[in-house]
Amino acid sequence: MKCRHCGTPLELVFADLGSAPPSNAYLTHEGLTAPETWYPLRVLVCTACWLVQTEDHAGREELFAHDYAYFSSTSAGWLAHSQKYVSEMTARFGVGPQSMVVEVAANDGYLLQYVKQAGVPCYGVEPTASTAAAARDKGIEIEQSFFGKELAMRLAAAGRQADLTAANNVLAHVPDINDFVAGFATLLKPEGVSTFEFPHLLKLVAENQFDTIYHEHYSYLSLSAVARVFEKNGLALFDVEELPTHGGSLRAFAQRADTGSREKTTRLAALLEAERRAGVEGEALYAGFQKRAEKVKDDFTAFLIDAKRKGLKVAAYGAAAKGNTLMNFAGTRPDLIPYVVDKATAKQGRFMPGSRIPIVAPGHLDADRPDIIVILPWNISEEVQSQLSHARQWGAKFVMAVPELRVN
């Protein structure tokens, strides 16, 4: 395989998690009678441009299908984050009724609903039919398509260029990162601004967040690699913020390289220097990650087996993609975790890919009263524990496996 940005042959292995089906390919009852397609799940590092990336095995149309089941509005914390983003960005960049805001990967309208409420013209780009329909139900205009330079040219030619574009947790999800980024340089007005939020590679490495590795995440991004990709495709970074979301993310601010006039901030330079000192452009940073991932897998499996032997009831909360990575890597099956609770109605009644553990509504948790609740989306564990605080009344304990096994 060659690097999807610079074309250099890839040889340095960062992580090998065996094989798994696509993490958002939730199964129906009918699907249980059919075989699943499993793909190798390996992550490689380009030693030329230092883009960290999965091996290519499945196309985007398969991973982001019409019945895609991830709905951003499920998390109250993420909605609050999105509302704050709209307030801050519209104030900082003078976005108002005369402006145009475009979100790429608009999902179910979780963010653009706040843009619309602020009286700012907007539309979204979203390829998955399920989430696009949910966004339209909120009164949000959606261009249902995968984003890239060709679509951006068509939108720009129709007079639909943007003063502000948002792209949250999608930069890692694109197989052709060059075409994707080039689309923003085309869609932006001359003085427009693009923001991109993505999990930070340094956090992934430092905190052993191996369960954020799955096929839908084609790339694992450092700011240094992003700067290189942007430079080659018509964008220029001018600022960055560090965010707590998704276990530690970055919000990168970019402008058109040919017309943008904003000065680079000192915090952009400082973070690029911090990455250099951490060694994102050297092989040593990536050594040892595999062993740490395997320790989590072993500790998690041993804990579940011990709980089974003791006759304890175990349940999981949050049918998250990261949970599927963990359970498929660990070989977890319904004998160890009989069910997963999730608030998203699109997931209820389905089954986790690979493990085939049933997904049920939150009420099932109260009826069953398990002794142990494994929180799979550890990035929102505080929110989940607050929602389920009543479970402590029957003696339930909360468990997180990443970055290491914790019992609360």
How is this structure best described in words?
This protein is of the alpha/beta class and 408 residues long. The protein has two domains: 72-286, Rossmann fold (3-Layer(aba) Sandwich); 295-407, NAD(P)-binding Rossmann-like Domain (Rossmann fold). It is built from 13 helices and 17 strands. The strands form three sheets. The protein has a seven-stranded mixed sheet. Strands 14-13-12-15-16-17 form a six-stranded mixed sheet. Strands 1-2-3-9 form a four-stranded antiparallel sheet. Strand 15, helix 13 (381-387) and strand 16 form a beta-alpha-beta unit. The protein is globular, with a radius of gyration of 21 Å. The chain starts with 11 loop residues before the first strand and ends with a strand.
Number of strands: 17
Largest sheet: 7 strands, mixed
Shape annotation: globular
The radius of gyration is 21 Å
Q: Give the total of domains.
A: 2
- Mean pLDDT rating: 95
Beta-strand content bin? 15-25%
Give, in order, the helices and strands. EEEHHEHEHEHEHEHEHEEHHEHEEHEHEE
The CATH first-level class of the largest domain comes to Alpha Beta
- Secondary-structure-based class equals alpha/beta
